[in-house]
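Run log, item B.
One chain of 95 residues. Sequence copied directly from the ordering sheet:
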Amino acid sequence: MQQSSLHSARKLPLPVRTALEQLLGRALNDNEAISVRAYQPHEAPAMEEQAAIAEELRHYFAGIDERATDIPDIEQEEILDEAIRSVRPGYKPIR
């Protein structure tokens, strides 16, 4: 079972904040939010299962590549850059 919570650094009791700063190796800013998640680790899938999943992914992405053959390479790069910037606003492509 997975549980998670979100806490404001500003509202943390000093001993908790100090412990988190030690774990992070840096001071927390008051405007930061801290996410804490606890979960039960599990064994990695068997090698056969990993291979089957990898093959499914190769097949899936091959289908995507097939449908994108009529899109010019430069336009594909622009689409990827836009998608990356939507989750990482400071992203700058290296070309």
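Observations after the first pass:
- The chain has two domains: 3-38, 47-87.
- Helices lie at 14-24, 47-67, 73-87.
Flagged for discussion on Thursday.
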